[in-house]
Amino acid sequence: VQLQAFGGGLVQAGGSLRLSCAASGRTFSIYTAGWFRQAPGKERESVAAITWSSGRTYYADSVKGRFTISRDNAKNSVYLQMNSLKPEDTAVYYCATSRTYGLAFNDYEYDYWGQGTQVTVSS
């Protein structure tokens, strides 16, 4: 599976961004798609995840109520709508897919990763 993420940028606090991730290749093997982020000097953390077939979702506590993950199976794409952005959301965001059964949200459960897209939130 190949993943291409885009949609990052610079936004003021309180603003919104929508990240997109397009999957190609053996997309039938995808069970869960997720978004992760890594800020400078910090470990990579899970942001949100969604199961490919049923659409069941997971959110990190830090983004609940502000971020929404969705997918479009016909387009083999997953999205992350980010609202009410805060400076602490600044990070490189990565999309990834997992073949593991169940709603995966740990990075070691993910098999394929896209290139990161930078999100910068100014105060």
Structural class: mainly beta
CA-to-CA gap between the ends? 37 Å
Low-confidence stretches: none
Largest sheet: 7 strands, mixed
Q: What percent strand?
A: over 45%
**How many helices in DSSP terms?**
0
Order of helices and strands: EEEEEEEEEEE
Number of strands: 11
Rounded to an integer, what's the Rg over CA atoms?
A: 13 Å
Q: Shape from CA axes?
A: globular
Give the overall pLDDT as a whole number.
95
Helix content: under 10%
Describe this structure in words.
The chain contains no helices and 11 strands. The chain has strands at residues 2-6, 9-12, 17-24, 32-38, 45-51, 57-59, 67-72, 77-82, 91-98, 112-113, 117-122. It has 123 residues and is mostly beta strands. Strands 2, 4, 5, 6, 9, 10 and 11 form a 7-stranded mixed beta sheet that branches. A 4-stranded antiparallel beta sheet has the order 1-3-8-7, with no helix packed on it. The chain is 0% helix and 50% strand. The chain starts with a strand and ends with a strand. A hairpin with a 4-residue loop joins strand 7 and strand 8 (77-82). The model has no long low-confidence stretch (mean pLDDT 95).
List keywords for this structure.
seven-stranded mixed β-sheet, mainly beta, 123 residues, globular
